[in-house]
Amino acid sequence: MVTPDRVATVPGSRGGSMMTPDRVAMLPAVDTLPRTFLPRHRVDELLTALGAGGRRVIGPTVVDGAIVMTDLEGAAELPAGWTLRSVPGRVTMEPLPEGPGAARTFQYPVTGDGIKQTLFPSRVDALSVDTAPDGTVRVRVVGPVDAPPVAIIGARACDLAGLAVHDRVLLDGPASDPDYAARRADVLIVAVECALAGSTCFCASMGTGPEVTSGADLILNELDEGFIVRAATRAGERLVSTLHLDAADPAATARATAEVAEVRAGLGTAAIPDNARDVLLANLGHARWDEIAERCLSCANCTLVCPTCFCTGPVVQSDMDGRASSSVRTWDSCFTDGFAQVAGGNFRPRPRDRYRQWLTHKFGTWWDQFGTSGCVGCGRCIAWCPVGIDVREELTILAANSATPAVTPPGDRRPGTDDARHPAPVPFELPTAYANATVEWVRQETADTATLRLTTRDPGLLAGRPGQFVMVAVPAFAIPPISVSRFHPDGLELTIRAAGAATSFLTRLRPGASLGLRGPLGRPWPIEDAFGRDVVVVAGGIGLAPLRPVLDAIVQARDRFADVRLYIGARTPRDQLFIDEINALADRDDMIVRVTVDRAGPEWLGRVGIVTQLFRSVVGTGRDATAFICGPERMMAATTDRLGDLGVPREHMWLTLERHMDCGVGLCGHCQLGRRFVCRDGPVFSVAELGDDLRTEGL
Amino acid sequence: MSSPNRASTHVGRVHPGVWPTEIPVLDALPEGPRGRLAASVARLDLKAGVTFLREGETTDFLAIVVAGRVAVHLRVPERGPITILTLEPGDIVGWSAIVAPYRATTSVTTLEPTELAMIDAETLRGLLEADIELAAALHPLILDTVVARLAATRTQLLDLFQGREADPW
Ligand SMILES: Cc1cc2nc3c(=O)[nH]c(=O)nc-3n(C[C@H](O)[C@H](O)[C@H](O)COP(=O)(O)OP(=O)(O)OC[C@H]3O[C@@H](n4cnc5c(N)ncnc54)[C@H](O)[C@@H]3O)c2cc1C
Ligand code: SF4
Ligand code: SF4
Ligand code: FES
């Protein structure tokens, strides 16, 4: 019997793992594997074999009235005689009923923590930023500090499905998470097929359980007298061979199989509507969202217990004199206030927006992002929700009053089955390391905005394109995303508005100062789209900064473009950026430049009014125009409306979005907008691509 | 029959009507009404810094900016004058000339030498009353102007209510 070894993934490697079926695909042969028998009194031998070579062995044990996954010393620590009873809103630990089976050790449905905490811990060291004696800022990506290999015993089918989803998210994207990759590289998994399900379980409806079909090295079925054992990988076979187990008695095997079959029968397969995936984005305005929001406490329990939730955020800790800091990556949640916070406001201000994001992501947009469901049917979010909100019920209600047809065939909800609709990953390497840069000069543009001219030798940064951004690191501050406002052969410029602590510090840097840059990130402006066409550039406020490289490109090759018009809005005359440069452009006779301010005193003789008023009557036929737009989101929406009225095609209107960003490479989850990660799928999008998303509040 | 307006004569130089062909906004008018309106138009040249419409006072004429730039502003208690927006060639100013009680809701001041195509308020009201076709064609243009003014005023007032410099967006 040939069984696959697990795919070892090394940090940073993403060599075609998406094409490798072993990790995610079902092993059709798993129920035909040879079965051996492990008597109950020999479980310690299995644990010892798992721990060989210094491997940590993690399994279930009773701590403070709950069953949790933790380091196991021996079989005596397993939760023999205990079970968990889970209903919406409550999980209680109870003794197993007297009689046969009373001494079983895995006779409970999922634990709260599962295996997520082991391979994707809630806190890991991520970065250290410090200043070397010579003044250079050094940014180091701190790997998983000698995480020893682990063995996990007691994983359930849904846990393994959750793991497959995490693999997909954290390893298979354009960038992979080095910490997860390292912890994941050498893991032995002993799964247990459930002989008991909770009222909150719905794995069979999601196609993930209760049978274990992939992702485990060993598969156990617990009987009163011991365990039926299957080895599903070579590593599993090696383990079993050291134990010299006898073949299982066919009658015992049949009993074990029957128990799982009984669980399956009890679960049913229709817990959520067939069209759940398609119904969500089509019903963003459903009244049910408000109704749920009245009950939801925004406590984030659901995201913490969910085995697939992967959003993280940095916590920066700095030393007393601000010369060194480290950042710890912690689990974050789309339910927290700060999750979608940016300097100018919050993209999901209401609990309703947050619950809607959670459910829509899990069951809907996850498919678009990762080609898989984000839910594996473990039921944890139902059981651990203090007010008992049940995703099955909510989906059923949302789907019931909706005319959305099922696009996805029923039954095809198994994680990892949707390569057809899963967009190909972005075909370029995303930089995950920081390069060094030095401030050459600083120019104060306005009272709160400065341009930093930086020099760097990093070839990646120097190869950046208009519209791309960098993450800017200095010790003791959060690391903000900043667009490149000009490229030079030996460096670049950043134009930064002091919007908070980090940006204020950056605008006050002096020549000679050192900083760390990670980039270039994101999709650039498609300048080529404007070749041979009229060009309309519309900028609001600091939005002129990311558009400045577009203007540079136009000036450098003016004859590649037809008519060029530049419309700029600033808050007040004092807030105008790059005044000399803009005046120089206005003096050219080959482009039209119009500037307006939102408000001004009587001394201002220029235009007053919002920027969309500038092209009331100017653009001729917009059909042949390409537009590049950046500014506050509502300004961009109004601008695209206006330009649309004037005939500019939606697929030729490009804008760049701001969202909360921490990683910039599609791993931390913060910048989501519907189906997209703004950091990696954007930040530049066409209006045609965004569709209604641009105007949907709270998305 | 164009009659240079009494009030306008002291703010700038008025000369007989020339139809503002450079102004596309009036192209929207059908030929008949456009011709009837044109017969009553006069030109008004203004220097920079001239306030030709005052908040609260009677509006003597409706005009279209032909060249230059004017600021529409109003006085806010405890804050002084705030500019609501600026108008450019093609923009209509003085809509209150046809809406009773014909009092200006804002003041308008030229920011640079400005040329207006103007029509006396009473004359225009008479024309609109007598000429339904002209009224039907002109009123939507005036409404557009009022709507733009409303939007711009809202933007500026957001600031006042929030007590800080709000982003209009
Ligand atoms: C792609 C992109 C390009 C940008 N380009 C520029 C630019 O060229 N010039 C410029 O001045 N600004 C730019 N910004 C905005 C800039 O990143 C924020 O102003 C900055 O992150 C604020 O950080 P702070 O610590 O100074 O502010 P704080 O007030 O300390 O931060 C406010 C809070 O919001 C969070 N926050 C605010 N905005 C962001 C954000 N965008 N991403 C992550 N967290 C955020 C912070 O973590 C914090 O919780 C860009 C943003 C994005 C997403
Ligand atoms: S959404 Fe709920 S049921 Fe689905 S995997 Fe997450 S915690 Fe489990
Ligand atoms: S759904 Fe329940 S668990 Fe999730 S945030 Fe709301 S109250 Fe908390
Ligand atoms: S996913 Fe982290 S910033 Fe986009």
Write up what this structure looks like.
With 699 residues, chain A is α+β, with helices and mostly antiparallel strands. Among the domains of chain A are: 21-121 and 142-267, no CATH class; 435-521, Translation factors (Elongation Factor Tu (Ef-tu), domain 3); 532-656, Rossmann fold (3-Layer(aba) Sandwich), CATH 3.40.50.80. Chain A contains 20 helices and 31 strands. In chain A, strand 19 and strand 20 form a beta hairpin. Residues 1-28 and 408-428 of chain A have low confidence and may be disordered. Chain B has a single domain (4-161), classed as Jelly Rolls (Sandwich), CATH 2.60.120. Chain B has 3 helices and 9 strands, in the order E-H-E-E-E-E-E-E-E-E-H-H. In chain B, the strands form 2 sheets. A 5-stranded antiparallel sheet of chain B has the order 1-2-9-4-7. A 4-stranded antiparallel sheet of chain B has the order 3-8-5-6, with helices on one face. The chains are: A alpha+beta (699), B alpha+beta (169). At the A-B interface, strand 26 and helix 18 of A face strand 6 and helix 3 of B. Bound molecules: flavin-adenine dinucleotide, iron/sulfur cluster (2 copies) and FE2/S2 (inorganic) cluster. One iron/sulfur cluster (SF4) is lined by residues 296-302, 335, 385-387, 389 of chain A.
Topology (SSEs and partners):
The complex is a heterodimer of chains A (about 700) and B (about 170).
Chain A: E1 35-39, H1 43-50, E2 56-63, E3 66-71, E4 82-87, E5 90-95, H2 116-119, E6 123-131, E7 137-141, E8 150-155, H3 157-170, H4 178-184, E9 187-192, H5 203-206, E10 218-223, E11 226-231, H6 234-243, E12 246-247, H7 250-267, H8 276-279, H9 287-295, H10 301-305, E13 312-318, E14 324-331, E15 341-342, E16 345-346, H11 351-370, H12 380-383, H13 391-400, E17 435-444, E18 449-455, H14 459-462, E19 469-473, E20 481-488, E21 491-497, H15 501-507, E22 514-521, E23 534-540, H16 544-556, E24 564-570, H17 579-587, E25 592-597, E26 607-608, E27 625-630, H18 633-645, E28 653-656, E29 672-673, E30 676-677, H19 678-681, E31 684-686, H20 687-690
Helix pairs in contact in A: 1-6, 9-11
Chain B: E1 13-15, H1 31-38, E2 42-46, E3 51-53, E4 61-67, E5 70-76, E6 80-87, E7 92-93, E8 107-110, E9 114-120, H2 121-130, H3 132-162
Helix pairs in contact in B: 1-3, 2-3
